[in-house]
Amino acid sequence: MEKRDAPRHKCFLRAFVYVENSSVAVECVVRELSDTGARLHFSKLPPVSEFVDLHIPIKGQNFRSKVQWREGDEIGVAFHSTTYMNTGEIGLDRRVDRLESEVAMLKKAIKLLQKDADRKLEVA
After folding, report:
1. Residue 40 pLDDT grade (very low, low, confident, very high; cuts 50, 70, 90)
2. What is the distance between the alpha carbons of residues 66 and 43, in angstroms, rounded to a whole number?
3. Label partner for 122 (CA 20 to 30 A): which of 7, 53, 58, 106?
């Protein structure tokens, strides 16, 4: 029987991981979440250091996290602090970098959707 500090909740939340000393965001999906950590799924696992910052936009939460395990395209993280950081606690430069990364990813997604819509119109 597995014993954990906090119960896990299955979820499917879009999130971003920021590796230490880098302002580049890596998109991921939070597959399980608890009060003490999370299981993160990547389309391609990036090189991660011991600590990462996890940003979950829909919840408005940012967690300083320690990588506990790596397996395939997933990592498990433990939240380094017991409470999440408000956006106001993150430096302005870091917030701007995060938002710029999110905007760039959204622009790519829009381009892919536009190409798909154009192909469908050509077929019709």
Report:
1. very high
2. 20
3. 106
pLDDT level of residue 32 (50, 70, 90 thresholds):
very high
Taking alpha carbons only, the member of 107, 18, 99 closest to residue 57 is 99
Q: 85, 18, 5, 10: which is closest to 48 by C-alpha?
A: 18
Q: What is the mean pLDDT of residues 5-30?
A: 83
Domain count, the chain: 1
pLDDT above 50 for 84:
no
Q: List the CATH number of the domain containing 90.
A: 2.40.10.220
Candidates 62, 100, 99, 66; CA nearest to 83 is: 62
